[in-house]
């Protein structure tokens, strides 16, 4: 059967989809905007699969979908205005960027190492049913390869992703076909990070605060372009084949260089001893943070092959290693 990955939304298939998500597999599902490519948002490995399936050349933060406001609160703080907006526009094509709770179990990769996370409660009944059945947060960007148009039917998804997705739940064509509005409440204004079908005027009416469209120069299409993006305090020295006595080491693969003086004993993490780029992607942000918290001046980073997910890993490491002027111009497009 040619459509073997496309499943109708029956109760048996929701159960199967939730099982796949728990196993770290990818499930595509419809929302009222576009079809999403979903993974367990608490599972770094599963989230790494999303980037691999999409061939995304960089780790931009993903939107986390939740079945309820209560679940949003489990993972993030809702200030007064964010809560008003959530109560008005959820469920719907509306995404709030919120401060992450530090003890939450969300994957670091899902928000690309940022301290904030984008959360949405979708309106589409198939998305809601899947979220309830899974009972946890689902990270989901659009279910297309990087740089291609977002899919609005199950068939599009199959054409884009084929065997990169375990299952596609078919909810018919999406109503809106444009992505969700993304906002972040910041002091006495609401920053419009991405326009969408909820308009600035509607947002102003609810928030009672001005909506400020964020200009291209600070559009956070990638975390490297956000002022608040996660940057280690330590310097990074990339493609290191040896380690100096006072350096920490972020290694990759089997043949790791000899470390290190007594100063940095223990300051070694291996992104993937077996040389798996998926494992390395899953570990990247947590390991960078761990090494950074050890107060070393420099972290030596082993060479990482520039293919597949290695492209996104190297992109992120290069951004972290580069000197950072306060206002880096944006040059990215979302994928
Ligand atoms: P997509 O998943 O393709 O719909 O894109 C997600 C959008 O949300 C991208 O434009 C991201 O930059 C934006 N986004 C996700 N998380 C954050 C965050 N923590 N801060 C700012 N923007 C975010
Ligand atoms: Mg997209």
Topology:
Blueprint: E1 6-7, H1 11-22, E2 27-30, E3 35-40, H2 44-54, E4 63-65, H3 69-75, E5 76-77, H4 80-89, E6 94-100, E7 116-120, H5 125-134, E8 138-139, H6 154-161, E9 167-169, E10 181-186, E11 189-194, H7 200-207, E12 211-213, E13 235-237, E14 247-251, E15 268-270, H8 277-292, E16 298-301, H9 309-321
Parallel strand pairs: 1-9, 2-9, 4-7, 6-10, 11-12, 13-16, 14-15, 14-16
Antiparallel strand pairs: 2-3, 3-8, 4-8, 5-6, 6-7, 10-11
The protein binds adenosine monophosphate (AMP) and magnesium ion (MG).
Magnesium ion is lined by residues 141-142, 150, 334-335.
Feature tags:
12-stranded mixed β-sheet, DHBP synthase, binds adenosine monophosphate, globular, Rossmann fold, binds magnesium ion, disordered C terminus, 2 domains, 19% strand, 335 residues, alpha/beta
How large is the radius of gyration? Answer: 20 Å
Bound molecules: adenosine monophosphate, magnesium ion
Query: Distance N terminus to C terminus?
Result: 30 Å
- CATH topology (level 3) name of the largest domain: DHBP synthase
Low-pLDDT residue intervals, each spanning 5 or more residues: 220-228, 326-334
Largest pleated sheet: 12 strands, mixed
């Amino acid at each position: 059967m040619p459509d073997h990955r496309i499943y109708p939304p029956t109760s048996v298939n929701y159960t199967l989809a939730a099982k796949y998500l728990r196993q770290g597999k990818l499930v595509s599902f419809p929302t009222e905007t576009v079809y999403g490519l979903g993974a367990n948002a608490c599972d770094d490995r599963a989230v790494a699969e999303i980037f691999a399936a999409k061939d995304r050349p960089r780790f931009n933060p993903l939107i986390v979908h939740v079945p309820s406001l209560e679940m949003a609160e489990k993972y993030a703080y809702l200030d007064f205005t964010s809560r008003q907006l959530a109560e008005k526009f959820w469920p719907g094509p509306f995404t709030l960027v919120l401060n992450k709770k530090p003890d939450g179990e969300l994957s670091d990769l899902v928000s690309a190492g940022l301290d904030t996370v984008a959360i949405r409660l979708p309106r589409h009944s198939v998305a809601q049913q899947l979220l309830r059945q899974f009972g946890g947060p689902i990270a989901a960007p659009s279910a297309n390869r990087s740089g291609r148009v977002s899919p609005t039917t199950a068939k599009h998804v199959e054409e884009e992703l084929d065997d990169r997705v375990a299952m596609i739940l078919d909810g018919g064509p999406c109503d809106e076909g444009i992505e969700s509005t993304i906002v972040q409440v910041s002091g006495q204004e609401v920053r419009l990070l991405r326009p969408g079908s909820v308009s600035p005027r509607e947002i102003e009416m609810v928030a009672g605060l001005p909506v400020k469209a964020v200009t291209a120069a600070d559009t956070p299409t990638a975390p490297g372009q956000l002022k608040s993006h996660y940057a280690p305090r330590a310097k990074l020295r990339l493609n290191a084949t040896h380690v100096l006595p006072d350096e920490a080491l972020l290694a990759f693969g089997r043949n790791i260089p000899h470390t290190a003086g007594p100063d940095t004993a223990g300051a070694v993490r291996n992104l993937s001893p077996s040389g798996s780029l998926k494992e390395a992607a899953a570990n990247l942000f947590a390991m960078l943070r761990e090494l950074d918290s050890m107060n070393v001046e420099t972290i030596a980073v082993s060479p990482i092959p520039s293919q597949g997910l290695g492209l996104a890993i190297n992109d992120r490491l290069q951004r972290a290693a580069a000197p950072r002027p306060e206002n880096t111009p944006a040059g990215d497009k979302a994928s």
